Amino acid sequence: MEKHYKGGCQCGVVSYEVDIDLDGAITCNCSRCQPLGVMLAFAPRENFALHKGADNLTEYRFNKREIEHLFCKTCGIQSFSYGKMPDGTKIVAVNVNTLEGLDPRTLSPTHVDGRAM
Question: Residue 34 belongs to what H/E stretch?
Fold first, then answer.
């Protein structure tokens, strides 16, 4: 079920709101997700609004260079990333750990073997 959340980085420079369904949350063992310890959930880009901090984000791309991994230049937290589905639909991958008022340990994410992809 889709729910409304606020989120952002550790230092508060980046803040956003998103309508997202956390039932599809994942963990991944790829070379990026595993070291970061992120849990991700995905939403259509139109369900996401970046309220502040756009000018304080820096981007990192790896592998196929298709996903915009964005993180705060001040505290280094990656709150979200921008990407596309295979059909071209724009999505946002939200780091569930950056959502306010939510304990991610209460979720049961699906594990994805990103190293094998």
Answer: helix 33-36
- The residues, ordered by sequence, that sit 6+ positions from 57 with a Cβ below 8 Å of its Cβ are 14, 70, 71, 72, 73
**2-97 CATH, one of 1.10.3210.10, 2.170.150.70, 2.30.30.30, 3.40.1280.10:** 2.170.150.70
- Reported pTM: 0.89
Q: Are 87 and 76 in contact (CB under 8 A)?
A: no
Give 34's pLDDT tier (boundaries 50, 70, 90).
confident
Any idea which residue has 């309508």 for tokens? 19
Kindly tell me if the per-residue pLDDT of 114 is higher than 90: no
Q: In the chain, where are the structural domains located?
A: 2-97
